[in-house]
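SAMPLE LOG
Freezer: B-3
Tube label: C17
Construct: single chain, 422 aa
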Amino acid sequence: MSFTVISPFDNQPADPHDLSILRELAKELAEIAALPIQSERAELWRSLNSLSPKRAAILVEAQGGWDQLVPDSVLKCRDIGFRSWELVIRRRIWAFHNIPDDKPVTNNFDVWWWVQKSDYGVAEVQHRTAEKGSYSWDAPIKSIDDLSKLKPRTITVDHEMSKKSLEFAQNIFGDILNVRFRGEPTFRCMLSRVLIHLRGLEQMMVDMYDNPELLHQTMTFLRDDMLNEWETFEKEGILTLNNEPDQLLGTGGLACTDELPADDFDGKVRLKDLVAWGESQETTCVGPEQFNEFVLQYQIPLLKRFGLVNYGCCEPLDRKFDLLTENLPNLRWVAVSPWCNREIAAEKLGNRYVYVYKPNPSRICSPEPNFEAAEQELRETLDIARGCCVSITMKDTQTFHNQPERITRWAEMARRIAEEYA
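STRUCTURE (predicted):
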C-alpha cells in the first residue's frame, strides 16, 4: 500500500521510506499506550497529586544519558526532520520496555507552536570549554546606567506555519496517534537564571549588599517581561493544558491531576488553568532573607497567576520552606534535592504538599555504580518521609557509561522498595 504525503514547506512528496518507518513506530507506540497499565499508572499519580497517595510514585528521566540508550545510530529515517520525530518515538518505546517506573505512555504526538522571541537588547559573551561543557561569560550589565539598554522582548507567533506543521503531522500520524498542538509545557519562572547572565553570578551576590537598587530594578524588569511573555501566549490562544498523565514537572514527577483546569474552564486555556514551575538554583548560597527580598518577591505575582505551582530544582530548600508555604497558596509540589535536609523537609511539608525527592544520580552515573548505597538512600528517605506524600525522581543523569542496564536496575529497585513501603 502506497502512502503519499506532500510536505507543506517545499510542496514535495515526503520520502516513502521514512513514512513507512514512522508509521510502523507510531503503531507500536499506540499499542503500548492502549495497555491497561497506562491508566493504572496515571491513577497512581492522580492520587499522589491530590495528597492521597497509594504509595511513593517512581519516575526516571534519562536526560543527558539518552544518547547512550537510543543512539543516533539506530535511526533509519533519512530526512533530518523525520529523524527527530523518529528519535522521540523510539525513546518512548524504549523507555516502556526498559525503564519500569510509573510513567504512563500516551498516544499523544506533540507539534509545537512556531514562536519567535527577541533578546533583551543586550547579550552575554560566552566562553565554552566544549559544546556540552562548562562555560564562563562576560555579563553585559556593568553598572546601573546599563539598565537603560534593556528592551522588553517581542513575542511573535506564526499561526500559519504552526497550522501547516500540525496538518503535516496529522497527515502522517492522524489515523494512529493523537496529533495535537503543544504550547509552553512548564512555565519555568527562573528569573535569577536570567539575572546572572545579565549581571554575573558572583556580582549578583555582591550587589545584594553593595548595589541592591540595581538588582531590584533588574528583577522588576525581568518580572514584567516574563509576565508579558505568558500573557502574550494567553492572548494568542496558544496555551495548552499541562496537567496530563505524561506531563513532567520541573521539580520532578508528573503533573497528572484532575484539579485543573479551573472550574469555569470553557475550552480556552488560561494561566489559571495551568501548572507553573518556580526555582532559583543560582541563590543556593544565599540566605532566606536575601532570597525572599531579591527573588521570591518577584516570583510570587507570576506564580500566583497559575492554578498550581511546583517549586525547586537542585537547590536545597531546607531554610526556605516556610517562605514558600507562607507566600504561595497554590503550592503543591516541592523539590527535595540530594543536598536538602530530608528531616526538615518531612517536618515542613508533611502531608500538605508532595515531597518530591530526587536521589543522588552519582550512585548510577559514576564510573563505578553503587546500587547498595542507592538502595540505602531510598530506604532512609522513605523512613524519614513516612506520612508524607512522596514521589521519587531520578534525574540529572548525564551518562550511564554506555551501560543502559544501569537505569533499568535502578528503576526496578525503586519500584520494589516503593511497593514494600506502600
